[in-house]
Amino acid sequence: MTETNFYWEGANADGNIISGTIAATSFKHCKQQLREHHLFPIKIKRQTRQTPRRFFTKNKISPLQIADFCEQLAVLFNANIPLVTALEIIANDMKVENVRHLILKIKSEVESGHALHTALKKYPQHFNQLFCGLVYAGEQSGTLDIMLHEITNYLQKTSALKQKIIRGLIYPAMVFIATLIVSTILLVFVVPQFQSMFKSFNATLPFYTRCIIHVASLLKKYLWEGCIGFSALVFYVNFKLRRSRKFKLQYEALLLKLPLIGSILTKISIYRFAKTLAITYKAGLPLLTALALTGNILTIEKFSIGISLAQKHIADGKALHAALSSLHFFPAKVIKLIAVGEESGSLDLMLEKISDYYETELNHISANLSSLLEPLIMVILGVFVGGIIIGMYLPIFQLGKII
């Protein structure tokens, strides 16, 4: 029989009324499970299927909402409030339905006897391996509130950095899109008008002008086919990125070679590596385990594979700085600081210094991203719009020769 979610209210061994949700095949099965956990059921109700959410809010929970949940849980746990009670307080106070529903499901798992990190593992779309690993380390060492504060700080910083970079890219992206639209309008609607006028000259047009007229004719003839083809290309690239690791490596290798984008992606990867390894190492996790968790959260496949290779070198007896130096994508200053940290026994502090340095670098880049991309914007405007306008007026400038 298939399981269904049941909402229940009941009394625990202390006589307190608690509630939650549980998966069971029937009402009888639900009561049996509750009694096995020493709970006396008072009310059991089958949960009806929720109405479908709107497309744009479909089960979306942002990292900042997860960070807010962690921060509240850390404060309540530090105040010696029991975990289940803390989760219930946060859920009742949460206004966002998706987040509240998620917290209630976690609460139900904890009430069923699972540890917090085990409950979180059931929702990998919201809590990755790093998150669960740090929570596990906190539970084992009795420093769960400290680990939750570390996770909150990490999520807030990475989200803020991401938003800054996205905001910095919005203006260049809008200019590029506007340029494409204007260029298309010029080629499809304006150039044909000039072409009709040029026919009355009965003379050979400049080669550059003829090229633009030919491009305009092709674009006007195959505009919709081109749009469909471009959409199919975008879909194909996204599909291959999800399915083919080799294709993803080739795609990322191309991005890393681009002048500004490659530098930003490299700095982001080094920042996330240093910050994550610092947190996991400070949490008391073994170096190999910390590296495994760090490698899993790196989005650039090249760096993730490199960290896996470094793990093998360390398992064979190499020091961390020696293992990383063989990868050839960490700058010499990063390797040197890690070596100093290993020798002095302050690896976590050195990794924090590295992450702080790259965070400052990325904040500076994001603040000046528009000005850094201005030369590229000018080139794009000149090539697309300026090139079309010059091509159309070139015959007029040479009117004396043509006539």
What is the secondary structure topology, with strand pairs?
Elements: E1 4-11, E2 17-24, H1 27-36, E3 40-46, H2 63-78, H3 83-93, H4 97-111, H5 116-121, H6 129-141, H7 144-199, H8 207-221, H9 223-243, H10 245-257, H11 259-282, H12 287-297, H13 301-315, H14 320-325, H15 332-344, H16 347-367, H17 369-397, H18 399-402
Antiparallel strand pairs: 1-2, 1-3
Helix pairs in contact: 2-3, 2-7, 3-4, 6-7, 7-8, 7-11, 7-16, 7-17, 8-17, 9-10, 11-12, 11-16, 12-13, 15-16
Spatial shape: extended
CATH H level of the domain at 260-364: which superfamily?
A: Type II secretion system (T2SS), domain F
What name does the CATH topology of the domain at 260-364 carry?
Receptor-associated Protein
User: What string gives the helices and strands in order?
Assistant: EEHEHHHHHHHHHHHHHHHHH
Low-confidence segments, given as residue ranges, are: 49-58
Helix content: over 70%
Structural write-up:
This protein has helices spanning 27-36, 63-78, 83-93, 97-111, 116-121, 129-141, 144-199, 207-221, 223-243, 245-257, 259-282, 287-297, 301-315, 320-325, 332-344, 347-367, 369-397, 399-402, and strands at 4-11, 17-24, 40-46. The chain is built from 18 helices and 3 strands. Strands 2-1-3 form a 3-stranded antiparallel beta sheet. Helix 6 runs antiparallel to helix 7 (144-199), helix 7 packs parallel to helix 17 and helix 8 crosses helix 17 (369-397). Among the domains are: 4-46; 260-364, Type II secretion system (T2SS), domain F (Receptor-associated Protein). It starts with a strand and ends with a helix. A hairpin with a 5-residue loop joins strand 1 (4-11) and strand 2 (17-24). Residues 49-58 have low confidence and may be disordered. It is mainly α.
